[in-house]
Each structure stands twice: as structure tokens, then as C-alpha cells.
Design a protein that fits this description.
The structure is a single chain. The chain is of the alpha/beta class and 390 residues long. It has a single domain, classed as Peroxisomal Thiolase, Chain A, domain 1. 35% of the residues lie in helices and 18% in strands. It has a nine-stranded mixed sheet, with helices on both faces. Strands 5-6 form a two-stranded antiparallel sheet. Strand 5 and strand 6 form a beta hairpin. The longest helix is centred in the middle third of the chain and has 16 residues. It is globular, with a radius of gyration of 19 Å. Coenzyme A binds next to helix 5 and helix 6.
Length: 390
């Protein structure tokens, strides 16, 4: 017996992802909100939506904080209760959790959750510095290590312990670029070869250019309501049946393992228990591939394979569209892009499309159960959500 719905998604929106020159974050969020409103004509946004939770990681990009009120204003939700959530790259995974709390508590009937980031107008060194603020200041940032460096440490530990190779990492990139080539909203819509990935320049060994997620502009949102009200708004709701969030030490140096994220494992366990499901019940997943090694570790932390077997899973092509458990059908952070604050609810947007049969060229046949895995920083925050077709 699958878990009972906590809340239902009745609509969702996603802006185009990419270099959105000449636009502010607020305009990009308004684009995502408009899609969500257009998809749901039975909803009167100003009347029905009682709260907005919006994930946003960095005010440094636009010198603009106070994101909750800013996005409410530009989405046409003036006067609504509006709050920003911040948990690094899991900021909108946290917004989704906050929306679930609001609906489950009975305080709100209908809420919007989402996320936004505008990054590409800044130089790569500036972006790298802003992102690094989500790592430990005295022991990591101060010594000059950045996110590619931290994930390179995980990659070398995984290679040493389990025999994972640079080819395995590159295979994740090739798969996600293939999926991204099928997604008209993806930042990079081009297929690549294994050779392209392997011969790209080294960023932090063993991670090369094509092992890194993209610096991207974008926004995403969902409209949530109580399951008993869902049919008022749509004939095709998607139910959230499991939700887990956990944290870990901010500094990576204090962790027991470099080859697994404790917060992600804990969040996944909570979500599976709540949903009364096992990893083998999942038909489609979006995982946090901020670097290719992170996708391999995610396979293991989520129980899609045993610890240490992530490299073999990708080698056997098991996570490609049409195979046993398609992962990152949207293109993932690698190819769709990673506007950090928007990523968590962008993953949920892909689940909404997949479970309502609207994913077009990248549709997973008969998808009934989906999962999203959103990680903040090097793993000090993780959220996992499980979804079921309504
Ligand atoms: C990898 C990275 C450093 C490359 O940045 P860069 O060296 O400044 O590269 P540029 O922006 O100058 O782009 C140069 C070329 O590489 C391409 N490119 C940039 N990043 C890319 C990526 N991650 N994957 C593939 N191609 C990429 C650009 O499209 C551009 O191609 P073009 O010359 O055909 O137009 C940057 O993408 C990065 O920092 N990514 C990780 C972001 C991150 O840490 N996110 C948070 C995770 S926790």
C-alpha cells in the first residue's frame, strides 16, 4: 500500500534556463509563475494563493535581498504572505518542504513554492566566490577550496575505495546531455561524446569541464493544495507521498565518509518510510548532479544500487531514458542547468511533467512514482521527495 498523499501539486511552471541576458531574477520568476497560472485556469491566483515560499541562494548576484516580497510582487501575488528560504543549492527543496508544512498544518489551503537565481551576468570567479559561501568559512573557504575542489575530493575517495573511473564520470555527462537535448527549456541542448567529455579541460582533477554543472539563470514554481481539494483545480494532480530533509556538518572534513552523503541517506530513508515504498518502486528520478560524481553517489545514497556500484549502474546504461530507472530526464544540472535557488522545484517540475504524461520526447512510459533529490553545498542539507500520479 503506497503512502497517503501529504499534498497535491495542481500546477507547475518553469522559465527557460540559460543565459537570460537583460532580465532580472524577478522577471524570470514571473515567467515561471505565468506558466503555472496558465496551466491552471480554475485557480484565481490573487484570491486562492495564501503564501509563497521561494528559494534563493545569493543576494550578491543582483545586490537584491528580500526575495520573498520581491517575487510575490512580480508574480502578481501582492500582499500574500511571502518568505524566502535559503539552504544553498537546496534552497527550493527547502521551499517545497515549507509549503508542505503550511498546507499540512491546516494554516493554508493553497500555496506557491518555487525558486530563482540570476547568475550569468557575473564572472565565473565572482560566481565561484558566492557559491563557496555555502561551505565552511574558517576551514574551507579561507584556504581557497571551492565547490569543484570539494567534489573532486569526493570523486578521488570514490575512485580509491570502489574503483570508479574518469570514464564512469564522463558517462553521466554523456547521458545527461542526451536527455537535455530532448528538453527545449534546457540551457545546453546538445549531445556530446565520451571523448568530448574526457578530453575537456581539467577544472579540479578528476573533474573536467563536462563533469561540472552549468552557471545558469532560471526560475521554477509549483502550486500545492490539500489532496481533497486537488480536483477543484485540475483533473491531473500529482501527489507528494514522501518528504525527507536532513542536515550534516557544514565542514566536509568532519564527516565520517567522503563517498556518501549522510544527510541525503537520512532524507531518503524518511521519504521512503513515509511513502511506504522501496527504491525499486521508483520509475523516474531527478538527482542533484552538480558534478558527475554527485550523481553516482546519489544512486548509492538513494538505494538505486548498492554502495560502490554507482559506476557500474551508469556503465550498464541503466539510468538512461528507456532503461530500468531513468535519472535526470530533464538533462539534470549538467545540461538543463543549475540556477542554484531554482533547482529543487525545477526537479519537482520535471516530476510533474513525467507523472502527468506531458514530458513529450523525454516521457518515461507508464511512470507512476517519481523521486527528487536536492543537495545543498557539499551535502550539509538534503531534501528528498517522492511523488505519485494522481
Ligand atoms: C566549470 C566552470 C568553472 C566553467 O566556467 P568557465 O571556465 O568560466 O567557462 P566559460 O563560462 O568561460 O565558458 C567557456 C565555454 O565552456 C562552456 N561551458 C561553461 N561551463 C560549462 C560546463 N559546466 N559544462 C560544459 N560546458 C561549459 C561554455 O558554454 C563556453 O562554450 P563556448 O566557448 O562554446 O561558448 C563553471 O561552469 C562552473 O563553475 N561550474 C560549476 C558551478 C557550481 O559549482 N555550481 C554549484 C555546485 S555545488
Amino acid at each position: 500500500m503506497k503512502g497517503k498523499p501529504l499534498v497535491s501539486i495542481v500546477s507547475a511552471g518553469l522559465s527557460k534556463f540559460g543565459k537570460l541576458e537583460g532580465f532580472y531574477a524577478r522577471e524570470i520568476f514571473a515567467e515561471a509563475a505565468k506558466e503555472a497560472f496558465d496551466r491552471c485556469p480554475n485557480l484565481n491566483p490573487k484570491r486562492d494563493i495564501q503564501a509563497l515560499f521561494v528559494g534563493h541562494m545569493g543576494e550578491s548576484y543582483e545586490h537584491q535581498g528580500h526575495t520573498g516580497a520581491t517575487m510575490a510582487d512580480w508574480a502578481g501575488l501582492l500582499y500574500v504572505s511571502a518568505t524566502r528560504t535559503e539552504a544553498a543549492c537546496a534552497s527550493s527543496g527547502a521551499a517545497l518542504r515549507a509549503g508542505i508544512y503550511a498546507v499540512l498544518s491546516g494554516l493554508c489551503d493553497v500555496v506557491m513554492v518555487g525558486g530563482v537565481e540570476k547568475m550569468t551576468h557575473r564572472t565565473t570567479p565572482e560566481v565561484t566566490e558566492y557559491l563557496a559561501m555555502a561551505s565552511d568559512y574558517p576551514f574551507e573557504q579561507w584556504h581557497g577550496i571551492t565547490f569543484p575542489g570539494l567534489f573532486a575530493l569526493m570523486a578521488t575517495a570514490h575512485m580509491h575505495k570502489y574503483g570508479t573511473t574518469e570514464q564512469h564520470l564522463a558517462m553521466v555527462s554523456v547521458k545527461n546531455h542526451y536527455h537535455g537535448s530532448l528538453n527545449p527549456k534546457a540551457h545546453m541542448q546538445k549531445e556530446i561524446t565520451l571523448e568530448t567529455a574526457l578530453s575537456s579541460r581539467v577544472i579540479a582533477w578528476p573533474l573536467k569541464l563536462f563533469d561540472c554543472s552549468l552557471i545558469t539563470d532560471g526560475a521554477s514554481c509549483l502550486i500545492l493544495t490539500k489532496p481533497e481539494n486537488a480536483k477543484k483545480y485540475t483533473d491531473m494532480p500529482v501527489h507528494i507521498i514522501g518528504s525527507g530533509q536532513a542536515s550534516d556538518t557544514i565542514g566536509m572534513y568532519e564527516r565520517e565518509s567522503f563517498t556518501s552523503l549522510a544527510a541525503a541517506k537520512l532524507a531518503a530513508r524518511k521519504a521512503y518510510e513515509m511513502a511506504n515504498l522501496k527504491p525499486e518502486d521508483v520509475n523516474v528520478a531527478e538527482v542533484h548532479d552538480c558534478f558527475t560524481i554527485a550523481e553516482i553517489i546519489a544512486y548509492e545514497d538513494l538505494g538505486l544500487c548498492k554502495p560502490g556500484e554507482g559506476g557500474h549502474l551508469i556503465e550498464k546504461d541503466e539510468t538512461k531514458l528507456g532503461r530500468r530507472i531513468p535519472v535526470n530526464t530533464s538533462g539534470g544540472l549538467k545540461s538543463k542547468g543549475h540556477p542554484v535557488g531554482a533547482t529543487g522545484t525545477a526537479q519537482a517540475y520535471e516530476m510533474y511533467l513525467q507523472l502527468t504524461g506531458q514530458a513529450e520526447k523525454r516521457q518515461v512510459k507508464n511512470a507512476e512514482v517519481g523521486l527528487t533529490h536536492n543537495v545543498g553545498g557539499s551535502g550539509a542539507t538534503a531534501t528528498v521527495h517522492i511523488y505519485r500520479r494522481g
